[in-house]
Fold:
Amino acid sequence: MKAIEKITYSIWELKEEIRKNPDNYDAGRELLSYFLKSRSYIERKHNIPEGERSFLLLQDHKAPACMLIHGAGGNPAEMRGLGDYLYNLGFTVYAIRLPLTITGGNKGFKDYLRYLFRRNRDYDRTKRRATNRNTWSACLPESEIALDTLIDYSADTAVIGFSFGGLIALNLMRKYNLDKTVLISPALFPRDRGNLLFRFMLKCAPRLAKQIDPVKYTIFEFIQQTRSRIKTINQPFLAIQSINDPVLSLKGYAFLKRRSTSKKSEFVLIEKGEHLLVKGDNSEEVFKLIGKFLRKTQSLRLF
Structure:
């Protein structure tokens, strides 16, 4: 039996044990350890550098859990500071690596036309490609598998998503009816700067848009689908965004505020923080806001 098959079988056995005996902490601890091994095995196969792989910070006692989801173009390393902060508060932390690797430059519409008329094959070799692993339709189910595993470990599990990871978190909170979710700069309304022509093509010539930049196309497709599905949000969540975010419009912040029906939801605008709120000068303030929100809504006592 191959190594990955042994790991997968061990995960299945541990899940069965936990379902029979939910209070078996040792089984829960082993479950997360084996799950990380399975992720690490796959990520090594895809030549992901060690510092950019999924990571696990596991408490040595029964504890609530947090699942961290990074942004598009990023990796779990950008969530490490937040992960360490939450671990020190008493949470077990798992940070997933999304199968959304953005490589190569966006050649743009002019380069695409040049390719059509000149038959320049360089365009075809260097354009960004979306594969079965490199799409939101792969990110969401893999995130669901990770969340299922964390919930087996602890029913008291929170999801924290940054930017594109915030979109994943919104979909997870709807499906799993989570009672605490944190959305950090969720990518609901990207700013129009540099995207006007691409937005026009999405509406009028979607096939052309997909051919020109398949990675951007799949992200915009996910944004549109997520927005269209959200009518009301009954679960409590914390939304944080910077006023001077150069990547995302504050329309997303207002969108969430209008649709929230829970009195326990919280909305915070950071005066100066740019887009990457999980790193930089304002990260400590953001971490404290998240810790305070999670402790308000948690059901297990932190040690």
